[in-house]
Write a structure and sequence with these properties.
259 residues, alpha/beta, Rossmann fold, 2 domains, six-stranded parallel sheet, five-stranded parallel sheet, 35% helix, globular
Length: 259
């Protein structure tokens, strides 16, 4: 499938392995083959709500076995980035357990008093009071970080406002743009590769979105595979100024080529 051997795999979750709560046909066999051939992999998601343990349980309910140590979220990438930038720092957080747990584990103190950072993640219920606090803290000098730029998230009833939309509100009120850690920032890819102790030249990023998965994989120097089992159709890919290394219907097409 490529002129260079792929020894490590980064996999987007929604649209690549699962659709809503259902496993995509072939996903279980693909993951099983990766384990049997001892090929390192991480499942990536921009969703910062859930901990890896939560997501592992969700995948298990869909019939997919992915240990929590093989899941890399934008919350984990954000916590790792902040711990490297300002070890033992403090943050005011808008988010849920996935983000707060990651920051605590990284040695961060959560506070609403002169924090080093305001960290915005995804939550099911954005509080106007906490958004107001964030605006005032940023205006007072706290640095503004957001886990990912996704403007909306899916729900059975339709799209929901997500991190990117709330970040735009805060930016409008403060004049301060956040630094986004998650996809399409290639930092998310590099932190995942470092976690696997893998090199970009022998790693592949498999995703269903050109504007996040594929561009961040390309910018990180990885082989990129666009799957058509999620949000993107083949004709959509031609509208972008960059191309994936390969387009396949689903990960099922990749099983026989794993080596």
């Amino acid at each position: 499938m490529t002129r260079r051997p792929i020894r490590s795999w980064l996999l987007d979750m929604d649209g690549v392995l699962v659709r809503e709560e259902d496993a995509i046909p072939g996903a279980d066999e693909f993951l099983t083959t990766l384990r049997e051939k001892e090929l390192p992999f991480l499942v990536l998601t921009n969703n910062s709500i859930y901990t890896p343990r939560d997501l592992s349980a969700r995948l298990q309910r869909s019939g997919l076995t992915v240990p929590e140590g093989s899941i890399w979220t934008s919350a984990l990438a954000t916590a790792k980035f902040l711990a490297e930038q300002r070890p033992g720092g403090s943050a005011f957080v808008i988010g849920e357990a996935g983000l707060t747990t990651a920051l605590h584990t990284a040695g961060y103190t959560l506070t609403d008093t002169s924090p080093d950072y305001v960290v915005l993640g995804e939550t099911r219920t954005y509080s106007f009071e906490r958004i107001t606090q964030a605006i005032r803290l940023i205006a007072g000098g706290s640095r503004f970080i957001a886990t990912n730029p996704d403007p909306t998230g899916p729900s059975p009833e339709g799209p929901l406002p997500a991190t990117g939309s709330v970040a735009a509100l805060i930016t409008k009120a403060t004049g301060v743009d956040p630094y986004y850690v998650g996809k399409p920032n290639p930092l998310m890819m590099r932190s995942a590769l470092n976690t696997l102790d893998a090199h970009s030249e022998t790693a592949a990023m498999v995703g269903d979105r050109m504007e996040t998965d594929i561009v961040s994989g390309l910018e990180a120097g990885m082989h990129t595979v666009l799957v058509l089992s999620g949000l993107t159709e083949r004709a959509d890919a031609d509208r972008f100024p960059y191309r994936p290394s390969r387009i396949v219907d689903s990960v099922a097409e990749l099983i026989d080529e794993l080596s």
